[in-house]
């Protein structure tokens, strides 16, 4: 700790001194003002240190004298809680390894998490009503939407009748056959444009793969969620990209400052960040227009028909708040955030895994040549590619935690473990997906692990040695798909509130990976370099990871 303190030079002088000469106070006021500023700075600093050391809800009980007698133990726990920010996947994995299926506790600076991994405990969590263990309350903590989503407050919304679940799970999924052929063309063009803009080093273009995929996903998602017109609006497209990044950083800052400062800091951030305002200003007139059309339609007038998520949400919402133009835009903003990052990251790691395991390229290309057109028309199929992306997501999951529920009322698991108000229950997704209990040779990459046995038997690879190797890799006793949900696959959460966008996400991942491997040979510039870092439970791809995409026609 001391060494960190030494590394960061603390500015000398008071807040007023640092503000510089533009504050032209009369000189007689200066000593007094300087003293006041020093006191205020001191109070803020003390609060920050206090917040770092003392949890909002101390696990040792309230802040009582007994706290002092257990100081060392307590400080160690707080140190571990702050380490969660940088090392959460390992901390969760350790808890999973030592708990042998029992619930275990992990502390973060701002929360206490209880991880459950046995099927019965997961069932208890997923069955608890939304007003006891709440996904919305957990999302509210993560996203701080009152500051990052134009004043959105999930608590004000009745949870039943939320339109986006039906809009995404049913209507977006059912429309995949209409959406996918256009997305294939858009993705191919966008990827080629981005590729052309990357610098040439030693005769080949070096592409920052994470950024490139995020930009491709943003375009695909704008078209699928908001419609083609908005994709032509440059200001909106720029905001659509920056908004999710702004949101993550802004919400994180708000989460880490003491509660009493959150409205001030959150308000400042909200005023300084522009992405959410551009999104709001662009979507609100459209939502207002659509609401007018709904009104006219209810009076028997002819109105234009629309086939996008704005319309599907409008048609799916039953509660009063969500039926207003503002309510619809808030839901769209929440969907937007949920749709971009996990999808881009999953695709980025799948492409990197293809570079690390190039023996899969030839059978995947064969499958794409044979079956891509059928997949586009139905939204189903490409089982080899499906399995490859699933294996990549198993070993490089975006999130080490899912099925996140924040307690709004005290809750007890059947073994007596208590989850108090403000604590979270969740599943250790990554640890379960890499457990030998569920996956033979769990840490070995086996791209076709999930395909049916007969498909594996009929695998046709031009190199007989490679074919034998692929067939000998570990294989699951029962086949499964990327979008499935079962007791060893919690990538999409669990129970009633599993990801409603997963059918679209899986289809888009297949479109993007298929378009890239059909049209380019790919390799990592430096396969040995670290490809991600972790922040809390998220495995974030490094922006500086470079790939070479060589057009196959050349
Ligand atoms: C690979 C990509 C994706 C992953 C891994 C993923 C994962 C998840 C998970 C785990 C949850 C549940 C939260 C939890 O239990 O902790 C969730 C919820 C949600 N996801 Fe996804 N998601 C992905 C893509 C998408 C896409 C593309 C959309 C929209 C088109 C979307 C929309 C949502 C929404 C709206 C919820 C909230 C559901 C509710 O409130 O009941 N997701 N997602």
Automatic annotation (TrEMBL):
Subcellular location: Membrane
Signal sequence annotation: none
Organism superkingdom: Eukaryota
UniProt keyword annotations, A-Z: Heme, Iron, Membrane, Metal-binding, Monooxygenase, Oxidoreductase, Transmembrane, Transmembrane helix
InterPro entries in alphabetical order: Cyt_P450 (IPR001128), Cyt_P450_E_grp-IV (IPR002403), Cyt_P450_sf (IPR036396)
Main subcellular localisation: membrane
TM segment ranges: 32-53
Gene3D superfamilies according to UniProt: Cytochrome P450
An MF annotation (GO) of this entry: monooxygenase activity
Binding site for heme: 499
Family (UniProt): Belongs to the cytochrome P450 family.
Name the UniProt record assigns to this protein: Cytochrome P450
